[in-house]
């Protein structure tokens, strides 16, 4: 079928309208009395509706929509569920950790800032460095999604699309940081949810309706037709469970909203975001399943093209404009969050805590650093995005890298024996093992395979234990870790190393946990958690407009 296109004038008009309206909204935020703390945390007073929408919009990347569809196209009917369901549940699982962190550091700006008090400079910079890498790759993946969309739906090139998207996002985010990001997220998530309700059913019925499942079944393998596909779970679901738990801990965009929302609204915010994310991402992921049933081949062999390709095939111009706004909105909501997160890290963790003398950080310099960071990050992400990397692989890779941080970071907020040495050694060693396994530089065979299988089983137990610990406490967490690890042991040995992506992620969890616990048990140091609230706080004493 012929692809429907919007044409260059209409595409530019939609972009100008979207980013123009977004920019006008941010103008409602006053700049006469700028405040560096409000630029990073919005004064810690954001209410439920805005914060829930912002958390949902931030978690729903445009790249998430594309990646969910890719998962559906690759693994069949269970693919979007293994992507969207686990991603949604992880929002819920991190809620208790969020409350603990906020209670310890009610006026903090970043997680790394807390680690500076908890452990010192090296641990802070390790976490800040991983946050920068992750946010930069997140920004890149969203620019790729935007560039692919514009290239598919208009005569404009992929590179031109990236530049247009990057310029639009930078335009309004530069203005007021996290305040602009949160304020615009509310409208963007409303547009996304409304569009999903309309667009997915329209494409489904335009493509043939329920009859597709009979005529197209021949295009699916037995695994792709099963809701309980082991291939989908081991290649997509299991690595993603490990990855998204790490996202919640390692991603500053989530932490920034945690510090921005009113403390008594944290629970409602996380629960609402769980439902909103799951419904939206699984719904769009079904477009990938639909493409599989229809026997659609991704244009140019690029699976990133699947969603816009289906939209361009089955939607008329009016609804195609709605689809275009939906994807641009989801992309912009996460990209502006990444820029805000990057600016906060550079303002707080690099300048505020390591360059300026204690208590002498200058708010105007901080604001300048924050804005320069956004410009530099945008330019870097545009350059990387021009290589058109696979979005799904990029997301799983980032999450897996953060997996090395999850246990040491969480333990640092609960256990007073975790030392700077334990934190740093655990994270760096886990990363040193993760990369060779993830990229196949080490052959997983013979004794190496036995060792990696054993550690991977421990990694499974660690993830289960952390999830249980957050809601039910230490004893239940340890019991869950032991029970799950023992249950997986007979099946995992001789088997898990056959899936190197999953194995690498689990190794990161296992090694960081074993080392962090082992080294911490040898120390006699005891940390006073009350110091965190005392030593994290305001940089800027000037009044600010809310």
How would you describe this protein?
Keywords: Membrane, Transmembrane, Transmembrane helix, Transport. It is found in: Membrane. It is a multi-pass membrane protein. With 546 residues, the chain is an all-alpha fold. The protein has 2 domains: 8-388, Up-down Bundle (Sodium/glucose cotransporter), CATH 1.20.1730.10; 415-527, no CATH class. Helices cover 77% and strands 0% of the residues. The chain contains 24 helices and no strands. The termini are far apart. 57% of the residues are buried. The mean pLDDT is 82.
How would a crystallographer describe the biggest sheet? none
CATH second-level architecture of the largest domain: Up-down Bundle
What separation lies between the terminal Cα atoms?
Answer: 51 Å
Structural class: mainly alpha
The coarse overall form would be: globular
Query: The CATH topology of the largest domain, please?
Result: Sodium/glucose cotransporter
Q: Rounded to an integer, what's the Rg over CA atoms?
A: 23 Å
The proportion of strand residues reads: under 5%
Order of helices and strands: HHHHHHHHHHHHHHHHHHHHHHHH
What do we call the CATH homologous superfamily of the largest domain? Answer: Sodium/glucose cotransporter
Number of domains: 2
Enumerate how many helices there are, as a single number: 24
| Average pLDDT taken over every residue | 82
Count of DSSP E strands?
A: 0
Low-pLDDT segments: none
Q: What's the level 1 CATH class of the largest domain? A: Mainly Alpha
What's the helical proportion of residues?
over 70%
Membrane topology: Multi-pass membrane protein
Protein name: Na+/proline symporter
Main location: membrane
Organism: Paracoccus alcaliphilus
